[in-house]
Amino acid sequence: MQQKRTAAKAGTARRGATTGNGTAANGRATKAAAKRAGRGKEPGLDLLAYRDEFPILQRKVYLNSCSLGPLSRRSMAAMDRFQELWNEHGAQAWYQLWMGEIASLRAKVARLIGASPHEIAIAPNVSAALSEIASGLDLGERNRVVLADMDFPTLAYQWLAKRRTGTEVVFVPSPDRVTLPAELFAAYVDERTGLVATSRVFFLSGYIQDVRRVAEIAHANGALLLVDDYQGTGQIPLDVKALDIDFLVTGTLKWLMGGPGLAFIYVREELIPRLRPTVTGWFGARDQFQFRTTEFEFREDAARLEAGTPAVARPHPGDRRGAHPRALALPGGRRGAPRARPWLESLQPARRRRAQLDRVAGAGAAG
Ligand SMILES: Cc1ncc(COP(=O)(O)O)c(C=O)c1O
User: Fold this and answer.
1) Ligand 1 pocket by Cβ (under 6 Å)
2) Which of 29, 119, 142, 151 could form a disulfide with 49 if both were Cys (CB 3.0 to 4.6 A apart)?
3) How far is the C-alpha of 72 from the C-alpha of 86, rounded, in Å?
4) Helix (H) or strand (E) holding 44
């Protein structure tokens, strides 16, 4: 059956809206926010109280989260805290705090999308995340990539740029520039197809694709499925396992309300060893802190797709109930902030000694 569903292009003005799993679209209202607004116990009213968390709503009707989510008070506080910690600890913040926070961020993203932490990598933006996958995935004889003509251009550009190396790019046309019934993919996906790459929510129309059905069509033909979920994550619930997705990219800019500079990659566990990107760096190396310039091996987890130092000053998603922006640099901070296990403690003894020596020698983790 054809599905005609669209995701709201703007969530901030919705009153009493709930997500598909019955939780408030923007997460639970804080008690303080509810008190400030002087409102009671009804869930819809609590959600209204949540507007206090976003000062811009005092001045504007915010309808453009699909471009940039509004800034919350807790995000501002978290970024202030980041600067305080940077000022307090200097380069030691890398080892004492931020490397541990980066690991806990992967775990939080995993919880948000129904994956495991070792299946998550961090990237600076969705285009770079896609480039990691495009450069790392050898499709062999199956060099056909199928997309929708409604997908965001950056998704198509990854494979259009590879046409000179033999990649064939095919677009499934939308019949009305709004929808794209999943069955239409079936005519384009065949034994030459290595990858179907498409969005869950179309940036042009807000239409929500039947990703589970697209996965069935791809897998029945021996192809893999990559989903660009930048317009979905934080707005509608996601379970990558239930949808049978092989690769997923998303980020904090839009519905996760964390601003620019941070994106995420999910890679299904079995596919991690297949990805050997030529776009790489020391964060993707197995023994990152051995500093062996003349040797390189990929990490065993999905973080092999990471290249260099991530933007630690960005707020990031908290839990799967909704978008709860928190910042990386929050240990010991406000109530509810995640406390990172000091990163040095998590290393093997030899690596720990080495990292300690590096600290003494003043070799900062940011290189
Ligand atoms: C669906 C989708 N994918 C990708 C992008 C681009 O992301 P980035 O600028 O992080 O590469 C956008 C930006 O609006 C988008 O809507």
Assistant:
1) 125-127, 152, 154, 199, 203, 228, 230-231, 251, 263
2) 29
3) 21
4) helix 43-49
